[in-house]
């Protein structure tokens, strides 16, 4: 059983509300007002994917170490270049943010901080931790002379 209203909803992807305003049949990113928990969710997925690339870099480092002095020197030269350091910094941000996001999810799994305000606070905290802890880690590496440009 369908009527004209139902068939137009299928073709347009919208349904009319009683007040006459068209609404999408299902929520979409264009409909939602952005908030920090959406950003945190997307960042968690992106950083999780970036960690796969970082894991490959760590394996390449170990392989270069096992392949001898010349291979290791080549790897260190590439990893220590400005572009290499930027990649390692990105890996560090991804790792630390993803860790904080995991803790955020553990808190939610425990049934705590489920109100929108608390969830937003945890999301901001995860993002801040990822950035600040990475900057602190790299500042230490530069200050200790472990890394230089």
Q: Roughly how much helix do the residues carry, as a percent range?
A: over 70%
What's the gyration radius in Å? Answer: 23 Å
Order of helices and strands: HEEHHHH
Give the overall shape: elongated
CATH top level label of the largest domain: Mainly Alpha
Number of domains: 2
Question: What is the architecture of the largest domain at the second tier of CATH?
Answer: Up-down Bundle
* Structure class: mainly alpha
| Average residue-wise pLDDT | 90
Determine the number of helices (DSSP H or I, runs of at least 4 residues): 5
| Relevant CATH superfamily of the largest domain | Fumarate reductase/succinate dehydrogenase, transmembrane subunit
- Fill in the CATH topology of the largest domain: 3 helical TM bundles of succinate and fumarate reductases
N-to-C span: 71 Å
Strands in their spatial order, largest beta sheet:
1-2
Number of strands: 2
Low-confidence runs of at least 5 consecutive residues = none
Largest sheet: 2 strands, antiparallel
């Amino acid at each position: 059983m369908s009527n004209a209203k139902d068939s137009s909803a299928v073709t347009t992807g919208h349904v009319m509300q009683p007040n006459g305003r068209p609404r999408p049949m299902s929520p979409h990113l264009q409909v939602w007002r952005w908030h920090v928990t959406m950003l945190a969710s997307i960042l968690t997925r992106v950083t999780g994917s970036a960690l796969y690339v970082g894991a490959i870099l760590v394996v390449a480092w170990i392989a270069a170490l096992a392949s001898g002095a010349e291979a290791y020197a080549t790897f260190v030269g590439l990893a220590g270049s400005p572009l290499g350091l930027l990649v390692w910094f990105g890996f560090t941000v991804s790792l630390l943010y993803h860790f904080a996001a995991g803790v955020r999810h553990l808190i939610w799994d425990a049934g705590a901080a489920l109100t929108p305000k608390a969830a937003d606070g945890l999301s901001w905290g995860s993002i801040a931790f990822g950035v600040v802890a990475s900057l602190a880690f790299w500042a230490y590496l530069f200050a200790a002379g472990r890394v230089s440009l």
